[in-house]
User: What shape does this take?
Amino acid sequence: MSALLELLRNTSALSGGNAAFIEDLYESYLQDPSSVDSAWRERFDDIIKDSANEAPDIAHGPVRSNFARLAREKRPASRQSTERMSPGAAEKQAAVLRLVNAWRVRGHQYATLDPLRLRDIEDVPDLDPAFHRLGEADMDTVFNTGSLFAPDRMPLREIINFIKEVYGNNIGSEYMHITDTRQKRWIQKRVEGSRAKADLSADDKRWLLTLLTAAEGLEKYLHTRYVGQKRFSLEGGESLIPLLDELIQRGGKDGIREVAIGMAHRGRLNVLTNILGKAPAELFDEFEGRKSPEPYKSSGDVKYHMGFSTDIETPSGFTHVVLGFNPSHLEIISPVIEGSVRARQQRRGDREGNEVLPILIHGDSAFAGQGVVMETFQMSQARGYTTGGSIHIVINNQVGFTTSNPLDTRSTLYCTDVAKMVQAPIFHVNGDDPEAVIFVTRLAMDYRQRFHKDVIIDLVCYRRHGHNEADEPAMTQPMMYQKIRRLPTTRSNYSDQLIAEGVITPDQSRDMVEDYRSSLEQNSTVARPTLTDLNYPYHVNWAPYQHIDWEHPADTTISPEKLSMLANRLLEAPEGFDLHPRVKKLIEGRRKMATGDQLVDWGFGECLAYAALVDEGIPVRLSGQDCGRGTFSHRHAVLHNQLTGESYTPLQHISENQANFLVIDSLLSEEAVLGFEYGYATTEPRALTIWEAQFGDFANGAQVVIDQFISSGGAKWGLYCGLVMLLPHGYEGQGAEHSSARLERYLQLCAEHNMQVCVPTTPAQVFHMLRRQMLRPMRKPLIVMSPKSLLRHRLATSSLEEFTQGGFQPVIGETDDLDPAEIEHIVVCSGKVYYELLEARRARGLRSVAIIRIEQLYPFPHEIFDSIIDQYPQVERIIWCQEEPQNQGAWDQIKHRFHTLLDKGKHLYYVGRPAAAAPAVGYYPIHVQQQETLIDEALTGQINPSMNRRTPA
Assistant: This one.
């Protein structure tokens, strides 16, 4: 049926017999122009333009007459004759159009993509003319070419040669899965109109050879100078270098002013040297171990994980290019780069992504195998995360990691099939054809700029060495490496081609090699010219955030007048805005809080912190699952009209010149979203960036981001990051998966003052803590064990005076009116368990037990804590009480912080749940029994000896 419609549209659309069909199409066009095929839409547009004196809803009679005129004036006589085509000829014509469509859909399976030619070309029946009942007798018959961007009529033989040249050569184009007709027709015009050939001048070809010479030359030089050292070479995939050069130069011409690149270690040193202009001498120092660690990097990192930034000249001015730091976790850099790009676009006001471009470079097995790739694609068009389309480059070396076989690394035909989930076009290209690589690079860049969607370049190549240079790949891939050892390099093949074309001479080719090697030996920069001392208008000055002490003062209070104004603005909504009854009740409660008639609860205190920050010009970005309302329905930063479905965010209407407040209900992802927010925070220190887990333990799904970036990025790479993680934590009997945020893991990662771990217990504490994070010029991650049941606990409240006075308290001493001289033992705790201890003590009328809360577990506030303990000189017994099992929570990571107490002759004991494999029990009665037991032991001082065998004397 579709073939017949195609035939109708391309051979007889202008005939009178199709008037009713045309009128129906035109009726649809008048109602919605996008509802008809682009080719028909263009024709109707022409009619409207030709009928300038008539109203847009011109009658159908003029439509028919306009089509008749177009038929007479614009249609070649050869096409008019097809309107009287015999049934047999019509069937043949339809078969030709089906054949063309088959090549558009499946021609990539016939294309010669593998430089090694190890795999047979797949037998695809519907690419064979015989499948469509077209034989040798039809080869010289002239047919309409339909929607091909080709001459209107061609002999079948020429049509077949045409579609093979476009779709079955060294480029395999996958785009027919895209549902947007405009995008498909745009791609067809580009690939068919040019016959998938790059229009390169002699100078272009010489420059292309120069880049291949550089890519190959660096690897050979390092291979001979640093024998056996790991460098994860690009050999076999050298076409990546001209590909990146073309992207940057073409992007610069199109107005791209910043490029952020994310890639793993394969080829990284080559990109650093030949694209970003890193000095060879600096690279050689790293190989030779002469590079001294920088003072702000306590551990540093290996050379093939390091990032870099530079400014590269392009035809339309400089382009700032950044290569992100990346550990050996491959694809995890993808969301980090996307977050960094979003921050850069935000700074520029670049809403469409016209000025900042993300480029993500992948390995074939990692692209197919790692879930963060799918998560990153899922973010690509989501409102809070889109960056206007990314260009993905897959360095497809056909081996994967060390010993893998493609049959073992995926279940799909191509490693790139995951990209079809967002209908991204995929261009497979033979890496040994550099001109084809340049063609798809230009195509991908122009597609991204036109449609602001992701696009994939699958650079099919090979790996001349093993996983690293000390590996022997032939042990597991004997046939592949027999072929590789005999295979000329990409640079050698292209040099021979240009010599044959008369573009260069053999001597010129040899001179290129010698000149590049000479530049390396002279330690000269070998990349394009880079700019120095550039007055970059969007540069972030990191100097104010460097070398800041933890005790740096920050006044986090606000005046009573300001607090009143902020509170009232948070309670405003447009006139007639119909709130849900439960939300209306919450707002009424907050009105009482604003006047002091009711103590401030957690949700209102938190929103006041955001309001104060944006009012002072500090942007806030908050993302996570359900974070607009709050998983536990406490925040309600976004209000929803129950009659219209419209939303209203009071925090975006605090004051006339306020900073931006953005709250995003994220996709159901932890790894990619947290990586995105980390990338955003490391790029924009002037904004408060927060990620909230739906439950604290959901962060387990993003552990690689926490381990490799958040906790260690400063030590390895010298990066500053003020990201805040809100992790709901507390034992309410909900079972193993909804109790613990795994506090112990974060404390275990703490060292060298790399991050903060806080457990605030009052709304005023979270208010001052969040404000301190921005007002103190220190940009270190803040991990917050945030509450669940405390969100509505009658004691977990604050007065208005607590917001206008004081500040964040790392330790809170005894708050009840107890006589220090009567205290027999002290209970030290953190988090929700404090309120259970407090209520139980009050209920029992105990006045001999003091309770101290530690609100900042790291960096541990030694001086404050010791000063509070010193108020009870007669007390010898100190109990650490926690809800979590003994091998979890804070105990194992914090008990060494109390060594000064032992020096003063005091005894330290543990009270809590016994060690356990799971974070919490799943049976509520047992949970209650355990909770009552630990509260009783802590208050009575009756210690369980089995959990205190190593109690200090």
Confidence is low (pLDDT under 50) at residues 1-17, 51-59, 68-82. Residues 560-804 form a domain with the Rossmann fold fold (CATH 3.40.50.12470).
